[in-house]
C-alpha cells in the first residue's frame, strides 16, 4: 500500500512546468536546485505527482515514462479511476 498523498497540478503554464520539474527532480534527488526552500525535498517525500490538468491538452492520457496522467479538464481527472 502506498501511503503517499496524490498531487495534481491544475494549470500547466510557466509555473506548472516548474512545479512538475521540481517534483520529478526532487523525487529522483537529481539536479536539486539550491533555491528550494522549507525542506522541500523532505516534504515532497510524502507526495506523489499523479496528474496534470490543462485545457491545452487535446485529450486525457497516461504517460508511462513519467507515471503521470495528463487531463484536459478537472472533470476528466475526477471521473478517471487510477
Task: Write a compact overview of the structure shown.
This protein has 82 residues and is an alpha/beta fold. It has helices at 14-28, 40-44, 74-79, and strands at 5-10, 47-53, 61-63, 68-71. It contains three helices and four strands.
Task: Characterise this structure.
- By secondary structure, the protein is of the alpha/beta class.
- It has helices at 14-28, 40-44, 74-79, and strands at residues 5-10, 47-53, 61-63, 68-71.
- A 4-stranded mixed beta sheet has the order 1-2-4-3.
- It is globular, with a radius of gyration of 13 Å.
Mean pLDDT: 81
Number of strands: 4
Characterize the largest beta sheet: strand count, sense, and whether it forms a barrel: 4 strands, mixed
Helical content (DSSP H or I, runs of 4+): 25-40%
Total of DSSP H or I helical runs spanning 4+ residues: 3
Shape: globular
Structural class: alpha/beta
Query: Residue ranges: pLDDT <50 for 5 or more in a row?
Result: none
**Chain oligomer state:** single chain
Query: How far apart are the first and last residues' alpha carbons, in Å?
Result: 14 Å
Amino acid at each position: 500500500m502506498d501511503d503517499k498523498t496524490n498531487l495534481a497540478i491544475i494549470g500547466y503554464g510557466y509555473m506548472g512546468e516548474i512545479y512538475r520539474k521540481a517534483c520529478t527532480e526532487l523525487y529522483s534527488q537529481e539536479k536539486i536546485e539550491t533555491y528550494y526552500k522549507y525542506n522541500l525535498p523532505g516534504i515532497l517525500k510524502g507526495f506523489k505527482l499523479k496528474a496534470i490538468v490543462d485545457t491545452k491538452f487535446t485529450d486525457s492520457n497516461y504517460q508511462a515514462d513519467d507515471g503521470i496522467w495528463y487531463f484536459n479538464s478537472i472533470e476528466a481527472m475526477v471521473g478517471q479511476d487510477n
